[in-house]
Amino acid sequence: MELETQMQTELLPDFLHLYHSFGTRSATLSGLLQHFDDDPTAICNSSPAALRAIGLTPKAIARVKRRCDREVATDLAWAQTDNNQLVCYDDNSYPALLRQIPDFPLLLYASGNVELLTAPQVAIVGSRLCTPGGAQTAFDFAAQLAAAGLVITSGMALGIDGEAHCGALQAGGHTLAVTATGIDLVYPGRHRRLAAQILQQGLIVSEFPLGTSAQRPNFPQRNRIISGLALGTLVVEAAQRSGSLITARLAAEQGREVFAVPGSIHNPQTRGCHDLIRDGATLVEQPRDITRELTQLASFVIEENRADDNVDITKVDPAHRRLLDTIGYDPVNCDILVQRSGLTIDQLSSMLLVLELNDLIQSAPGGCFVRI
User: Fold this and answer.
1) CA 95, 96, 100, 106 torsion: positive or negative?
2) pTM here?
């Protein structure tokens, strides 16, 4: 029995009791939900003898029977506030990509535009102690990728994370922040204004219960969500021992693309990026290096999550419609499209991605595109 999308079912309180009792990332709770066909009430109503019969320890049985009424009431009240939503692992609004990772979060606290959870995303992460050049690179990449239609996902930390969020916002695009604290807290405190902007133009999510303070183990745990939401992860400046490399490693383990921006051999903040490139990450110098790699993957995600297969072409931006008019039903390459449209190659790459995300064109052999 599945929990309904709006999380207002009779099952939700019992699910929240179990979630708070077992804690985040609990393999025991995941196994119980699978055994009881996603029915948390059936778990809570099972007798200790029945739970022992399926292999639960006395400690786990005590967790099942523990009641967390105060925490549950707090969650339910929070979810009644505008723009707040509890997104369970089997909700329609839960992102399909995130569900593919081995230890996906069972619950997400979400504030803002929850539709962004299922939109094509690229993660941008890097050093908190970034150089001015690294900060500008993160900002520029985020702005151009957001303008191309991708959601920019990061961890709202100081340095590269913050610049990535700001770049997406400045471009008028969307950004998603995954926090390592309860969603009702802002960490670091210097990003209070940024958090407010993200809530207006994007989404903030966390798997941690309300009121959870910043704790060191929570940050690498948070990083698996950043990489798990995204089609690919871009690392801009990272020391050889850094949380950004943890995110990149997780992305690779999850079967996602990993991109890295190279830098000076004298800059210790780029040595982690160089290590990633040696290990097989894609070296990128400009945003179109990423859009080219992600186009087919992003189209797949759009296809998986689309509720309506018919795209209304009249709702496509006029500039993109003009470009579409120059693409026929026979394959055509970018050089010809530049001549026909008068666009630069950067402008063309971004607009082609948007058209492909909307399934109005598709890639063809030889670097060509064809209208659908």
Assistant:
1) positive
2) 0.80
